[in-house]
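Note to self: the last two entries modelled the partners one at a time, which told us nothing about the interface. This time every component goes in together.
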Amino acid sequence: MRGTSKCYEYNEPWNRRSTASLAVPPLDPGGSTKYYEGNNPRDSKIDLKAPAATANVLLFEVLDFRGFLNLDLWKFAVLECVASMMNTFLTSWVALHPPSALASPQTELGIYHTSTFFSPLFTGLTMTFLVPLLIYTLAPSSGGHINPTLTMATFFARMITFPQMVLYIVGQTFGGALGGFAINTAYGSRDFTVGGCSVNTSVVSVKDALAIEFMGCLILIYVAFGVALDPRQGRLFSHAASPWFIGIILGLVTWASAFTREGYSGASLNPARCFGSYVASTFPSYHWIHWFGPFAAALVHAVIYYLSPAWVDPRTQSS
Amino acid sequence: MRGTSKCYEYNEPWNRRSTASLAVPPLDPGGSTKYYEGNNPRDSKIDLKAPAATANVLLFEVLDFRGFLNLDLWKFAVLECVASMMNTFLTSWVALHPPSALASPQTELGIYHTSTFFSPLFTGLTMTFLVPLLIYTLAPSSGGHINPTLTMATFFARMITFPQMVLYIVGQTFGGALGGFAINTAYGSRDFTVGGCSVNTSVVSVKDALAIEFMGCLILIYVAFGVALDPRQGRLFSHAASPWFIGIILGLVTWASAFTREGYSGASLNPARCFGSYVASTFPSYHWIHWFGPFAAALVHAVIYYLSPAWVDPRTQSS
Amino acid sequence: MRGTSKCYEYNEPWNRRSTASLAVPPLDPGGSTKYYEGNNPRDSKIDLKAPAATANVLLFEVLDFRGFLNLDLWKFAVLECVASMMNTFLTSWVALHPPSALASPQTELGIYHTSTFFSPLFTGLTMTFLVPLLIYTLAPSSGGHINPTLTMATFFARMITFPQMVLYIVGQTFGGALGGFAINTAYGSRDFTVGGCSVNTSVVSVKDALAIEFMGCLILIYVAFGVALDPRQGRLFSHAASPWFIGIILGLVTWASAFTREGYSGASLNPARCFGSYVASTFPSYHWIHWFGPFAAALVHAVIYYLSPAWVDPRTQSS
Amino acid sequence: MRGTSKCYEYNEPWNRRSTASLAVPPLDPGGSTKYYEGNNPRDSKIDLKAPAATANVLLFEVLDFRGFLNLDLWKFAVLECVASMMNTFLTSWVALHPPSALASPQTELGIYHTSTFFSPLFTGLTMTFLVPLLIYTLAPSSGGHINPTLTMATFFARMITFPQMVLYIVGQTFGGALGGFAINTAYGSRDFTVGGCSVNTSVVSVKDALAIEFMGCLILIYVAFGVALDPRQGRLFSHAASPWFIGIILGLVTWASAFTREGYSGASLNPARCFGSYVASTFPSYHWIHWFGPFAAALVHAVIYYLSPAWVDPRTQSS
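The predicted structure of the combined assembly is written out below.
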């Protein structure tokens, strides 16, 4: 029947669009605006084979390497690269210090009156305001991940395919490096550290830093799925609010994890940002924790995600 | 008549969903999203026996121990555990001090220029921003209690069953302990105290601390019911605002109770958080006040709740 | 067919109005309010020749010099001039310093306790609150650019014609000069510098300053298109929010770029503002970077804009 | 025809209400609330003669002195007087200083750590929050001008008649004086200055102060028309937002103009407030600039207003 199929077409792009975008645009009744379905562009071969597959990519689809031939995915990766470049430049620039800048407390105000406290506060505020605006800009096309942590998490939740993950992360990391080159030019020196990407390993062991990085990424991913990515969530708020909530949790964890322990400047949450800031200065031996922390958090989150009682396989439901 | 029964069915799931969730999702006319009814999952035996019982669980239902066989309740408890772990980690990390850190005022600005004032302020702000985002994430499934204080209060208000209360509190406390282990790893030492969970018993008597804990929990529960839990409340604001009001009252009481008296670092309001922070450091002799305070406040609130002139037994109403 | 043409007429004025305005008014069903189509007034010759051309001006139209004869464009330029005068006056006045005012850090708080940090913070806040209100005022007529950076960016994205760009930029620059004369009168001296327009070339090389200026303008343009200018964007938020997002990104970049490097007072983002402040004080040798930075950023953005997979030529679509 | 006249009656009160009110109440379909048409009460003789004249008063109407016999205008003037008294008292009380209180900077924080900076900041915040609430209260009756600057601007834009302007300004100034008497009683001394109304003429020439006063009033009027008064503006935001925007621009200009130049405490923007504060202390020789600045700004704005291409004479349109 015509009415039914029309209804089907109505819901279909919505679900598909919502799967890996950090902000879902409202339905457009007039239909004049053309949206791209974040992860499964309509004209891709993957999609045509299984039109009913929506929120979750089937296992064999995940490993379908033909996605590397999809021009749209490459374009999305370029957009992620540009946004990651801008994000890395501004949030690293505002957190940039000469290596000796972090001071020990000398007054009764303790740590709260030193740059050790204020630097991550201002970095967190910069993220809180910059990231939502970048997500708004990218959400209708690439989905606005910007951050490899979120790209990994959507992959392990089977929302995007392996080629898409690889292209996005390469784009984001390359964008971070471009931002790093810009910082290098703008600062005129390589002798600095960036808040969130600096661990004084003589005071803080790498294992400790990894624990904080893991917990921070888990909180970020859990909230990002709860307020934006999970298509099964009943939204309590306007879609326009989701990017701001992600900005808040990013800024909050960046700030709250940064000043408690001497020698540790806070969780990174974004490996591309630290990669870029190391391109601008020098690579430390502990850079792997900024990649392994998000990776482990994305894996653990995927387990929680499938255990969640709200989960219903959309294919089971529609059959 | 058909119209009447349709209207009845329309209101029914709404009431049941709202009873123990800290944020009520809007009704979903299309019906594509599947929500769980926070406390009485549709397929539980309790529910099938008395489908009209909604906001309040009957007395014999409260003690029906078959709820322990309900798989959904176990899954909800796991989600509460995960959220409690993240909440305990971040809010304890930001409030963590070496035991000697709290300073006496030395300038004319008095207490307002010491870490004794700023530490609970920043802890309160962290709660204000973190807790609402976690509630958004959990509200459609477990209801987003996160905190044993609120779980106890919903039990005494006959909104959830005894098995649900036990499973939730065990989950929240275990999550607190997991968060404590993460703090332990990340800080690399057991020699610290956490704001809101530390009482200097040589200066402040345990009885005094219990009085503040009780008053703080009562304020929290009263406001949480007023803005989110009580199904009889006429809401003046969008449902999306409720979690933020709970975050604000949590942060406000945490901060406002913390700096007035020397040797007392503020009301806990969340026994699972203190339990976790003691796992990370050491258990003090006065830990019982963080459990007895919320328990007494939940009992007293239940009396206020049933005395409230707005209360109407839903079964009386429908008969 | 009737349905199609009706749909076409519905979209037409909307698209044309949205092309170069920083805030699109909602459609007015009653029709009592008369709006002007920002860039292509209905009665202009350009428009009558190609009524289907909407979001993008055709290449030969861009260079149609008859736009200089359009009285409305001149009136719009006068409005841009007035707004630029007020914007330049207030945001420069609040950022005005005697040349020696920027202090080096002397306490453990480092840069965060000096006027070097607070001055751009307050300048950024002034922009965040002033610019959206000016955009609201101008959006229904000239589009509310106020800033040559955004006018250049809309030109390179083929949203406005060459004559419109020239008239706007001349108006904005002349308005900046008028604001500069007012500052000159109000301050009673030419011996000062203005934050965002001052580079100590003995410490910071001009190339470094250009790098920051370019990155800042790119971020501004990218976000301005993402949240307001790009007609292909699916808006996630109310149109009323766009001007505030532009205010936020302006204030954020102004502040975040200003205090990291000694001798550099932050990105300008608005060449007309610096032009005006130099009229009030003296022109430095490096003023060209405040024009070349936005120019290069607008060019680079135009390339990203046309690469974006969301781009569909509206003429191709409607044929 | 009936349909046409119904449509006419629908639009008519809307336009008339919007002409000189700083917040337009939403249309009330039920009709239970009774609003007054700001400037031309329905039962006045002026109105009955020319029912089609709405947004703009005809030239001979402007000078019709029979308005002085209109009882409603007198009632509105009393309301303006009461609001002006409250506004003057609170915003002057918060800005009140002993003459020696404004300090020179002594630390590296410069001006930002002195009462010279904080006093106008808190005054501006008080205005930002107080004025919108007063406008909400008065908008349905007198229009909520409160401030002679806005009354002058609406007169020169031909929105109100000469008698209305005179009655309003007399009421506002008398209210300012009443507020001044209250300050005098509450402070117990005449030996103080009020921020925004004090110029140290030994340091700042009166001509310089007039330049800032003029620019500040022009910004205020321009934005007030853009966001609230101009009936031709396409509103982008809820009507509830207009008073807040006016509060923001008032607070912003008050604060931003106040601390840059030593000896000048900021633009007044409201001659009635300064008049009241001089009643409470003593009248200086330069009080005329607080009246001439707004007068000149209102005149210049009227020219811009009629040049604006959006302007269409409503009588031409309806004929």
